[in-house]
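Reading a protein record of the kind used here takes only a little practice. Think of the row as the fold of the chain written in a discrete alphabet. With that in mind, consider the following protein and its fold in token form:
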Amino acid sequence: MENKMKMLDKWLSDLCCGQFGKFVKVIEDTDSVKGPTEHKKIVNIFTNDHKYHIVAIDRGNGRSYLGCQASTRKSLAGEDWFRGNDLPDGPFNRKTWISILNGIVEYELIPLASPVVYKVDSVIEEGPSLGENSEDTVTVGP
């Protein structure tokens, strides 16, 4: 059972470039939560806008759990609660861990700004490249 928790520590350490204590807050690390065969570990990791709450449970007998929840660290104007979502979860294995990491990255992504298109329909007298009655388009942004 200790193997799974050590594996989680290694994954978190890899995620944090070897600086586990600088980026990971251990909330609970308990042996024998429901008897001598269960080990539970709960950790939080933070970004500028979000908190990720990771729960790992090793129950022995091949039964285990690994999951993550995301929540905002700031409420929106007019709200007195923090928004959040469940991220991937499943059996305690590398595949679930990678799914959780992908969920975190997806949660942190922000959409690109759309380009703004302005129609220029007035005649510019001093612009020799523009015809007298031409209509040109100017795009601003990416």
Summary: The chain has three helices and seven strands. The mean pLDDT is 80. The helical segments are 2-15, 20-23, 94-108. The chain has one domain: 2-108.
